[in-house]
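name: query_chain
kind: protein
chains: 1
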Amino acid sequence: MTEAFFPNPFRTDGLWFKGNLHSHSTNSDGLLNPFQLAYLYKANGYHFLSITDHNKLTETKSIDEKFKDFVLIPGEEVDAGKSETNTSYHLVALNLREEIQQAQYPQRVIDQVLNQDGELLLGHPYWSSLTVNDLLGLTDYLGIEIFNSTCHFLIGKGYSTVHWDDLLIRGKFSFGFAVDDVHWHSNPHRPTDAFYAWVMVKAKELTAESLMESLRNGLFYSSTGPEILDVEVSNEALRVKTTTVQAINFMANNSLGERFTAAAKPLTEAAYKVRGKETYIRIEVEDGKGGTAWTNPITFR
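structure:
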């Protein structure tokens, strides 16, 4: 019998916290200094932020102490190695104690991060021209950036959900993260690359330790607009409840899955009957205004 597995944040005790896990300050190529970044993210309703300057661990403890009910997670974006298409990997390291040096091999960066009790995300695979072989060649990373605001607004390469499905269809499990990668870039169509993408984490308390524990366990979802309110999982069916949206997609392997679209009125829920041949299903919802929210994958064993 097929058995569904999903670390369900919607049925887990705790509180919801909103955060961005990829940002840049004047310590690398960002426009704002670390204090300004933290101040503006807090002012815009975020509960936590990771400042991940390029190849530099930005000191955040002194800034963190100035804010109430806001957490800074120390991080760094490390350039490493060469991909199948001769591009660099951009590795987003979270919860670091010490700076990671640039390395020839990306796997060594991952290992160094894990040795510090940190976690690593593979940054913007589409923007970096990474192939599925590049992603399959690495182990022990927490997930990939499935949406990146800066990559989206600058050159239209923000979505990496196909890379995500390429991994999942091959049995390589990965969490998916939506991030801003904020540099404070702007273009005529959007004044900034900030406050557009986030993760919603279900944690016991607003501390770096509690947030990281929940991220490791998949107790979060990602969004650029809609809210996911509940997911009910059984071996026979999946049901999702959301804020008002225009489409709900159950994305699965091969030709399985289903799309529900609004007709006379917007959708607020949908149910999918499991056929029995799914190896994974992930749910994404679209609000019709350009915003999307994504659950992490539900796997079937």
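note: The mean pLDDT is 95.
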